[in-house]
Specification:
Structural class: alpha+beta
Mean pLDDT: 96
CATH superfamily: Nucleoside Triphosphate Pyrophosphohydrolase
Bound molecules: ligand LXYW25GO
Order of helices and strands: HEEHEE
CATH topology: Nucleoside Triphosphate Pyrophosphohydrolase
Low-confidence stretches: none
CATH architecture: Alpha-Beta Complex
Number of helices: 2
CATH class: Alpha Beta
Number of domains: 1
Helix content: 10-25%
Radius of gyration: 15 Å
Strand order of the largest sheet: 2-1-3-4
Number of strands: 4
Distance between the termini: 33 Å
Shape: globular
Strand content: 25-35%
């Protein structure tokens, strides 16, 4: 449960902005540790999402990672109150509206790319694209 900032009061993965001189994967590991206390060296890239918001010219690029091995125990932090859910029992009604669309790809181990056009209310989206890809290495 996000306690502050963008997406406050929604259940979401741990995450945040990548810092200078840091890879996206390293940024995800750092955010996980900062926001939950969990430490991992086993992070797997699952998907790439672009979010567009009505009345906002800047798109948000979000990389989705899966962690299935970690050290430590999840603790509440200033930013997040962690909760565990079964992977087939996700509380999508409390999450961002896009999540239920791409979560099946994660379960199948299928990499994906998608785009979602959200209304200014940041609750509903008007259209989206989503497709499976073989690789997320666009370099
Ligand atoms: C619009 O739909 C979204 N869906 C999902 N599942 N996740 C989203 C969506 N929009 C943003 N997010 C994620 C991406 C990040 O993990 C967080 C927001 O992070 P941001 O860095 O913008 O905000 P803060 O956490 O407040 O900043 P720092 O931790 O970097 O200080 O939400």
């Amino acid at each position: 449960m996000k306690k502050r900032g963008f997406g406050r009061d929604k259940l979401n993965g741990f995450g945040g902005k990548v810092e200078a001189n840091e890879t996206i994967a390293k940024g995800a590991e750092r955010e996980l540790a900062e926001e939950s206390g969990l430490v991992t060296k086993s992070i797997k890239q699952c998907g790439l999402l672009l979010f567009y918001f009505e009345n906002d010219l800047v798109a948000m690029e979000v990389h989705v990672f899966l962690v299935d091995r970690y050290e430590g125990a999840a603790v509440e932090t200033d930013e997040m109150r962690p909760q565990w859910f079964g992977i087939r029992d996700m509380p999508f009604e409390l999450m961002w509206a896009d999540d239920s669309h791409w979560w099946p790809y994660v379960l199948k181990g299928q990499k994906f790319v998608g785009q979602f056009w959200f209304k200014a209310d940041q609750v509903t989206f008007t259209r989206h694209t989503l497709r499976a890809v073989d690789s997320l290495d666009f370099a």
